[in-house]
Amino acid sequence: MNTNLKMSSNGIVEMSMDELEAYFDEIAKNAPSLNEGGTFAKPQANPFRQPSPVASRTSGLTTREFRKLYEALAFALWRYQAPMNTHLVIAWELMGIEPHRGARLLCQYLHRAQKWARQGGRSRISWEMHYLYVHENAPGRGFHSHVLINLEGVHRKAFEKWSRESLAVLIRQHVRVDAFRLIYRHPKTMDAGVQRTWGWFRYVTKQHDDTDGCCERDESDQYSWKPLRQVFRLFRARTALPIPPMKLCGASHSIGKTAQAQARFHSKFWSGKTKQPYNEDFGGWELQQLVKTLEQGMQPGFSLR
Asked: Source organism's superkingdom (predicted)?
């Protein structure tokens, strides 16, 4: 191929964009490398070729991801009687951290947090920390993570202080005041704790993509289709930005799929019982069954359903 530029008498290039693109592609292909004794270490990118689109996905949770979070939380209540009384928000983008790195840092932070909980901090009152998390990408705040955990009240201040110090070590910079937030609630009763837990669940899963639902039978034996957002009464979805292809949510191994299978836990996710009392429909039922099981001297993994 002729790699000469077509130029007019006054020095203006007379080539179409397609010709220019082919011209620079040919130069890049024939450029010598250092191994061949040339002078170029690496051919430069063609400035006339459009860059490939950056892969991305929506910030909406798929039904599979949504169900994973629901079952992890229901299992935490059913097996451990552990309402999630603490909501963490970590705004990675406010600290100049890109999404993939933020996701990795969150996993490292949560792993360290579980070890800290098992050691009991300075008070030496240890406990098993369970968690679930969701990543979001929103205008203004940017890429950030929501985390629900069960936190012993005596550790609230110590855990917040430790969290800021631990994150500062991981990201190798100061943690902005507005980049980390810990919201702790201490309900007076277990029922109130269960309701608070599912209230936060409805908030952190608000970005569900609304593609699925279930059929509900009314009093006249007629079935009607209801979207999962209506079934679970999720918070209103907010404006979201695309996010790089990545895992958007997760839960600790202690309440994950393997732990659920070992305990013979059976989810009510597709039950469609939207008219049940709030606690019964959203996990309180599992907790009540565990209490009854323990009172009857059975093993917690025994299924009454």
From this structure: Bacteria
Token output for 111: 């792993």
Q: 83 near 286, Cβ under 8 Å?
A: no
- Residue 147: per-residue pLDDT: 98
> How far, in Å, CA of 73 to CA of 67, rounded?
10
Is-contact 19 6, C-beta < 8 A? Answer: yes
Cβ count near 36 (within 10 Å):
8
Report how far residue 40's alpha carbon sits from residue 34's, in angstroms, rounded to the nearest whole number.
Answer: 6
Dihedral angle sign, alpha carbons of residues 89, 93, 99, 105: negative
Same domain, 99 and 209: yes
In a domain, 25, yes or no: yes
Q: How far is it, in rounded angstroms, from Cα 205 to Cα 235?
A: 8
Q: Which domain holds residue 90?
A: 63-295
Q: Which helix (H) or strand (E) holds 215?
A: strand 213-217
280, with CB counted inside 10 A (0-12, 13-18, 19+), is middle
Task: Mark whether 156 and 246 lie in a shared domain.
Answer: yes
Task: Report yes or no on 301 lying in a domain.
Answer: no
Instruction: Please check whether residue 168 is in contact with residue 174, taking contact to mean a CB–CB distance below 8 angstroms.
Output: yes
Shared domain for 149 and 290, answered yes or no, is yes
Answer whether residue 278 shows pLDDT above 60. Answer: no
Whether residue 286 is contained in a domain is answered as: yes
Do 45 and 98 sit in the same domain of this protein? Answer: no
Q: What is the pLDDT of residues 62-74, one digit of tens each?
A: 989 999 999 999 9
E strand map for 121-198:
131-138, 142-149, 180-184
Please give the model's pTM, rounded to 2 decimal places. Answer: 0.72
Please tell me the predicted confidence (pLDDT) of residue 120: 72
In a domain, residue 291? The reply is yes
